[in-house]
Amino acid sequence: MTEVGARVVLVALVVLVASLVLGWAPLLPAALVLLGSVYAAQLYADDARLDGAAPLFAAGLYVTAELGYWSLEERERAEAAPGEGLRRLAIVALLGLVALLAAGSLLALADILTTRGLAVDFLGAAAAAAALLAVVLLARRQPES
Amino acid sequence: MIRRASPRVAGYAALTAIGLVAALAVRRPELAVLVAPFALILAVGLRNAGDPKVEVELALEADRVLEGGEVDAEIAVRAATGVDRLELFFDLPPGMEVADGDDAVALRLHGDEERPISLRLRPVRWGLYDVGEVEVRARDVLRLVVWERRFRHSTRLKAYPKEEAVRRILAPVETQAFTGSEVARTKGDGIEYADIRDYVPGDRLRSINWRASARKDDLVVNERHPERNTDVVLFVDSFADVRQGDRSTLDDAVRAAATLATRYLDRRDRVGLVAFGGILRWLQPGMGLTQRFRLIETVLETDIEPTYTWRDVNRIPPRILPPKALVLALTPLVDPRYVAALEDLRARGFDLVVVEVDPVGLVEPGRDEIEALAFRLWLLERDVLRSRLQGLGIAVARWGDDVSLEAALEGVRTYRRYARLARV
Lengths: 145, 424
Known about the structure:
The complex is a heterodimer.
Chain A: H1 2-22, H2 27-46, H3 54-73, E1 79-80, H4 84-113, H5 118-139
Helix pairs in contact in A: 1-2, 2-3, 3-4
Chain B: E1 2-5, H1 7-26, H2 29-48, E2 54-60, E3 64-66, E4 71-79, E5 83-90, E6 96-100, E7 104-109, E8 113-123, E9 127-130, E10 133-139, E11 145-152, E12 156-160, E13 179-183, E14 192-198, H3 210-216, E15 220-225, E16 227-228, E17 231-238, E18 243-244, E19 247-248, H4 249-266, E20 270-277, E21 281-286, H5 289-300, E22 326-331, H6 336-347, E23 351-357, H7 369-391, E24 395-399, H8 405-418
Parallel strand pairs in B: 3-12, 17-20, 17-22, 22-23, 23-24
Antiparallel strand pairs in B: 1-11, 2-4, 4-8, 5-7, 5-10, 6-8, 9-12, 10-11, 13-16, 14-15, 18-19, 20-21
Helix pairs in contact in B: 1-2, 4-5
């Protein structure tokens, strides 16, 4: 299992590097999905009650995505003023921290709710569906001119 | 501004959807936790992304510059609302380059902030340039939304052609009635000595040649040549252009036209222009500084407009080609319609000089034997054409890589001094 996981991680890294080298943004989420799938497989295999390291993985995945997209944006020939790079790095670090806190809060909530039976399961599923719907609706907002 | 989602939105939405579905499928809340930051950033970022209000204005230090010269451009960027990253791309027309500064910059602007950007532009070729196009791209702090707009300003820069080094210009055979710098063939009031003749009542006392009168024992007066102006028409061939890299026969012809126009106008001659090609442009002969600017600005509009129709000189209004005018044709001698027009002008008795902007150096001699043979045949055809024109009494000056314009004109001057003008 560990060997297969390592290979998938290697493939994910190759896809990530290819995305950055080719400048093709759709490959970037594919690399992150591959990384996430390794984590999911690990969770499935371990069958532990709740993984306390999930917020760290979430923040790491988010920071990886941010840095990847930043790298793709830097391919534009417009050069920013000196110091802007450091400022952007600070923003990404701050967003990573926010991601860690948000994921930690969600995990703590999940920890409380997983012990409450089927009704809470339904509530969790409904919340997940509502979150997904909200994301889709926001993403589909029409461009304004 | 046009608003569109950045590639992050699709990526984060896909990751969120996959993570939530996977969490439900395998019943592991950690997978929902894994994608929670993406969902959170998407929700907050798209909710708060307000349209930025940006204005861009471009001003040039001067509206005229000599080709190869530099002109300062000042771009004022104003933002009514804060913009985390504003990218500006200056869309420069072909032939214009940035001499100093960057044609693509990224800025961060606060609300109600104005930021000036300085650029130095250089036109590498003469012509008319519209330099007011700026593409603006704004991004929010989470880089989820991109706003784009193209600002178009009617800022026109005129790049005047660089002048060739010419000290002596060609003198026309005939002069006109007005005072100028050319010594006329006729006799009258002037400075240049012409001849002596017997005194007749009415002659001025100051024109009496006392030494000659003493020898002849009768009154003799000096006759002089008056200084008159001339009419010159620059007849530019805009049917065809032979181009290789940065060099082109039309570019050289326009530079020569600008140089000659300036030189003739400096001696108070009247200068006109005819750009004979797909589009016929002309400027009536005139004199003075205003005419100089008019001429150069007309010549700047000269370009090759492809046409298959036959054009002849009947299309040119008669006032553009005044009698006794020197017609200076600037041509690579590659289009038969232009050559026919030259023959036609000569047949009408115009004093005609052809300055051949030699295209031979711009043409590849050919890679294989057949192409090399074709090239040699083409050269022979050109020699025949030159001989035919000279046979009609048209002086042909070759101006190319190895011959300067001044040397070419000197050759014409010699030809015109010794060759008899053929009357056709």
